[in-house]
Design goal:
By secondary structure, the protein is an alpha+beta fold. The chain has one domain. It is built from 2 helices and 4 strands; from the N terminus they run H-E-E-E-H-E. It has a 4-stranded mixed β-sheet with strand order 3-2-1-4, with helices on one face. The protein is extended and about 55 Å long.
Length: 119
């Protein structure tokens, strides 16, 4: 446990930390969208659905693409709570929302999913 703190480094509040994380997220999304616009002509997605120990369900989507100069890219597009029911229709709807959000409409060539019987 820390016994003393250096006064030159004040401890930020939870509100400030949340604000900084949000600003970083927005900046990263903007940079990703520029990268996708400049380097991605077609791409593939992988996804997985799972239940955390807290009994909350999540979906993760990862994007993979190769640029014209054969540089390989991969990026976690999202890891979000997935609302019940987990039907194919709801999963496809979620996918379509993310494809539009990241400007990938018409660029996705393959989608790979897990085959768990629990989902």
């Amino acid at each position: 446990m820390m016994m003393t703190l250096d006064p030159a480094f004040p401890i930020s509040s939870n509100k400030r930390i949340k604000k900084e994380i949000h600003i970083g997220y927005i900046n990263t999304i903007e940079e990703l969208n520029i990268l996708l616009e400049n380097t991605c002509e077609s791409a593939s997605l992988t996804t997985n659905l799972w239940t955390a120990k807290s009994k909350h369900e999540y979906i993760g989507i990862t994007l993979y693409w190769i640029s014209e100069d054969f540089k390989i890219y991969d990026c976690l597009l999202c890891m979000e709570h997935m609302s019940y029911p987990y039907t194919g229709t709801n999963i496809v709807s979620f996918f379509k929302k993310k494809v539009v959000e990241f400007g990938l409409k018409g660029k996705i060539t393959y989608v790979i999913t897990d085959v768990s019987l629990k989902n």
